[in-house]
Structures are given as C-alpha cells and as structure tokens.
Write a structure and sequence with these properties.
The protein is an alpha+beta fold. Helices cover 56% and strands 9% of the residues. The strands form three sheets. The chain has a four-stranded mixed β-sheet with strand order 7-4-3-8.
Amino acid sequence: MADRAFASEAAQRLAALYGSIEARLAGGIAGRLARGIAGSDWAERRLAELGEVRRWAANLIGSASPAADRLARQALMDALAHGAERARTDAPGRGQVYRSDPTARTALLANRLRGAERYAVEAAAQAYRSAVLAGGIQLTGTGDTELSRRRSVQRALNQAMESGITGFTDRAGRRWSLAGYVEMAAQTAATQAAIDGQLGQMRADGRNLLIVSSGPQECERCRRWMGKILTVDSSGLGGTTVVVPSEATPERMVTVRAAGSLAEARVAGLFHPRCRCRLGTYRVGLTGRPVTRPDPEGQKARDRLRALERRVRELRLREAAALDDAARAEAREKRIAKQAEITAHVAASANLGIRRDQRRERVDIGYRAVS
C-alpha cells in the first residue's frame, strides 16, 4: 500500500486551510465580544448580532471550499497513481498501467467537508452565544464588575476552544475540531484511494493475492490480519485454499491459504481511520511472511504525543481567542509548558521510535494555507 506518510502529507495540506480558518474564527469572535464590554447593555447588543455572526462565520468558512475541493481532487488523483505505482514496484507489471478517475471519491470527501463546514458554522455561533450568556451580568460601573465579566466571557471562550471550533461529533460523543476532522477524513480518503490504485493495477496484471503487514506502532485493532494473505476479489471470503504456480519455480504448484478477502477484512476493521497497516502484492514463492511485532508501548507513546499536540493546538486557539493581553499571556504560558512536556515525552520515548514534528503543534498543521 502507499506509504501512510503520503496520505498524511495530503491530509495536512487540507487541514492547513481549515486550521487557519479556525484561528480566524477564534480571533474574530473574541474581537466582537470585546466591543463595548463595559456597557450595561453589552449582552443585549451582542445577542442582537448573533445572526450577523453566523453569516460572517459561514462566509469565512465557505471561503475555503473552492481551494479545499481543488486540493482534495489533486490529493486523490495523486493517491491513485501512488497506489498503482506501489503495485508495479511490488511486482513487475503484466498488464496496462492502471489509471482511474477520482471523481467518486472526491465527491464523497467534498460532501464530508461541506458537512464539517456547516457543523463548524453552528459551533462558532454557539461559542459566541455561550460567551455572551456567560458574561450577561448587569454592570454597576465598577472596575471589579467589568473584570468579572471579562473573566466569565474568557472562561466560556476557553472552554469552547478546548476541542477547537467543532467540525464533527462522533457516535461516542467526542468532538473533533474542524481542522482535526478534515485531516482525518482526508487522510482516510487518500489512503483508500491509494488502495484503489493498488488493487486496480493488480487486477490489470492478473494478480489476486495480497499480504498485510504493520507499520510502526502496530494497530491493535488490526492485529488479527497481520501477516495474513487476502484475496483481491471475493473468492477468499471466509478463508480459502488455492493452488497456484510458484513464481520462483513456475513448474511447481504451491498451496496457499488465504485468510479471507480484502473486502471482508475491511468490514472487520482493517484500514480504519488513522490505520497504519500496509498491503503488498503476495508473490508465491518470492514473498516472505512479514515479522509481526506487537508494540503496545510504542502505540501508547504515540497516542500520548498526539494528545499533547492537540492540547498545544487548543492553547494556540486560546491565544487567538484572548480578549486582552493578560489572557493571551496566560494561554501562551500554558502552551509553552505543554510544549516542554512534549520535549520530555519525546526524549523519554526515543527508543520506541517516537519523533517530534513541530508542524503538528501549529493550528494550521505547519502548512501555508492555500487560497
């Protein structure tokens, strides 16, 4: 299968668009809330602007759509070609070079992006409304009361930024930031497109056997498939035995046990979102079985790093959503402390193959947003 790093790169470029939008939303909401915050009619004025805020958020988020769709189509075209090339690298081509139209997968990803955009518009409006209600006390004109309002509004904003401007809530109730959801959806789509390209080339070459191997920090969810042979078509459904000629000595027939079909393995969880597993062409008599190395400690360390990176991104959004310099400095101090935790964690986990990528500690995932 195409390297996961390839899919990650494509996904991060898309996430950059929406990450920059999240930061602009956070700053824009804070700026609107800060206007006239000492006034006794502040809450009424700000609530009266809720519809305007929703329209502003929709326009801002929607401005990313054309560039996102271009990036999505190019990413999936590249993924298809990358997967086909991987199949040709695994085994000499015996048919025509496979080419495919990414329209169907692009449309599916675009639909997911539009859904996340709509969700984020409402999340931004809700963050604004909640902050107004939190600060909706009547002022008596004293500095202390104004300070109390600022604190209440900032606290509500900080809470809203804990998981970013929400772009998706899954069935477990976990909220995904707009950029985080886009990255996951795009990475999954690019990975699946690469598999499409790989399978398409294999079919063109008349090959039907695949072998599953793990990437770094093996997915526990996919462990049952590690080192197993699968069929490209449905002939292996439920497991089957095939007798095929050896590619090393064509006159010799070899019995091969397939654990199932690829479609069956996918239904059972193989290539779930953020899966690190790989597919290779199984060449009878030439392909060795991969050594499977369960790595629960490596997986745990990687998950911890991802959690720390998310927290740093959340704190950057807090900086963007600060009502004043004091709140900004507080968020920055917490962010620096969390980055120090990353430094310590990576140093302690270096023997597990954990490496720091500081791009992932930025709201835009370290990529220039494309307009």
